[in-house]
Amino acid sequence: MVEIARARQLDVVTIGRASVDLYGLQIGSRLEDVASFAKSVGGCPANIAVGTAQLGLPSALLSRVGGEQMGSFIREQLIRQGVNVEALKSDPDRLSALVLLAVEDEGVSPMIFVRPDRADMALSPEDVDRSFIASARSIVVTGTHFSAPEAAQLKAIKASGGKVVFDIDCRPNLWGLAGYAAERYVKSDAVSNKLRAVLADCDLIVGTEEEIRIATGEDDVVGSLKAIRALSDATIVLKRGAMGCVVYDGNISDNLEDGIFGEGFPIEVFSVLGSGDAFMSGFLRGWLGGESLATAATWANACGAFAVSRLLCAPEYPTFEELRYFLEHGSPFTALRKDETINHIHWATTRRREIPSVMALACDHRSQLEEVAVRVDAEPSRINAFKVLAVKAAVRVAAGRDDYGMLIDERFGREALFEFARHPFSWLGRPVELPGSRPLRFEFSQDIGSQLIGWPLDHCIKCLCFCHADDPAPLKKEQQEKLRALFDASHKVGREFLIEIIAGKHGTLQDDTIPRALDELYALGIKPESWKLEPQVSATAWVRIEATIVKHASWCRGVMLLGLEAPQDQLEAAFVATAHVPIIKGFAVGRTIIAHAAEEWLAGKMSDEEAIANMAARFERLSQAWLASRERKAA
């Protein structure tokens, strides 16, 4: 066992189960009838690690996953959500645990645990680096964790000097007591004896009424609480579902109500799966943060309310920004998943990655390249191969560095999308608009959601809208409704959304033209992650644009400048002119970079390598100009 001296740098280390949970998406269906599933990280310890990380507590998971794709999914998802995975081992001999779940009715959620000899239950004392444990302020162990014989010795972590938190989390079927049934209470002296032996080492004990009884073997709740108190001075938290919780920090009376209560929240129950783990996350955020037990209980109740109002577990637990907003403002909805403001906060604070800036080669042109092909008498199908060359040019410039990206379409860019996926770019945008359409129409089908569901999760939706603040009211209404439908679809399928606005082709571009257009879209609840805008007539216009975005959407990623086939020198001047505008985060330029190579290559006058080199040189020059303008600003 390797031990490395380290300071206490973690607030929480959870130990035990980590699985892939597959949630049936047909709500109200039997598990037998479910046709499609959503995938997320699961397992009580993994959920708590995510929940506490999203609430701002540095957390880690000590567990095992299989050395296969689902194990990689668990690891990568934990990293995305801020969990330290230093102690997450890959097991080459076992598969990751799998759980199938459905929501048949309120509070009725059948589960199948597919976990004979799964990796997480093979966790052994040799997997525990005691210096890693000693780096944490608290350790969270679970009752089910102790159902694996080789893991029983892990209760010795008390010697690390941190606080020991015991989430009883008893799953009888994982103790071999209920077959595949998801029973929550099966009396067993053998299980009670094992769990009872853990209690004396704990500083915090959390469980439902059934779990409290299992932990002691007593037949009633009051008797169980008294039995725990006889063994331990730990703070005890009794979870009571819709009734919230009761916290006991001293002697136990005969009255269950004789304890500390937190504020409760009336919430429509959608799915109870994982609500206890969200509850624990909220309680730990308060308890470890030095809040009163009543406040910790309130935060726990609130986090549990979020969980029962949403389908998935860990991915949909609240962030601390989300929790604070809810505690301060509440919600007009008892079904929190229907609250657009809260959902936007969750979405904006749980993005898959941070992208501080983007230098993008735009190669999503369709009609323009078709015109070139006609002009040089080339087969339009050759555009597909040209776009692969454009990706290779971008690869040459990016050279594996962050902050580079592309815009690629589906009509002519299918092979280019595959080539793009082979390289570590930071960002990809994909257009959905029918080229040149005004009023706005989507390409391929107006049922946009059915298109987006098949996209990779990290592909950003890009929609160009030719609109002006002074457009006729009927046209403006039609286009705004189209953008609103696309915004709704983007959140439904979990894809980021960029709106590109070109106003100068359909009216005079003034200082207030774009700010007014953005203001109207924000008023409709449309809050894209990013904007793509044409160069403005003055610095005043950019100041107003930034003020509008900050006013309505403080979590907006920012603005990307578009090129409109402007000469390279003109674009470089625009970079310098906007260096003082923090909201501008990058550029997405196409024809300035690719137009010459496209015409020459499609006409057969330029080889593949010459086309790649030509586009790479133009993209490199523009990228260096952008970087230089930002360095000049910093200086």
UniProtKB/TrEMBL annotation:
Q: What class of enzyme is it?
A: transferase
The Enzyme Commission number assigned here is: 2.7.1.92
Indicate the segments forming the Carbohydrate kinase PfkB domain, all copies: 11-315
Q: Which top-level group of life is the source organism from?
A: Bacteria
Q: What is this protein called?
A: 5-dehydro-2-deoxygluconokinase
SUPFAM superfamilies reported for this sequence: Ribokinase-like
Query: Which family, according to UniProt?
Result: Belongs to the carbohydrate kinase PfkB family.
**Keywords recorded for this protein, A-Z:** ATP-binding, Kinase, Nucleotide-binding, Transferase
Q: Which Pfam families match?
A: DUF2090 (PF09863), PfkB (PF00294)
Mind telling me which residue stretches traverse the membrane in this protein? none
Q: In which organism is this protein found?
A: Bradyrhizobium quebecense
Native organism taxonomy = Bacteria, Pseudomonadati, Pseudomonadota, Alphaproteobacteria, Hyphomicrobiales
- Start and end residues of each DUF2090 domain: 322-629
Example GO molecular function term? ATP binding
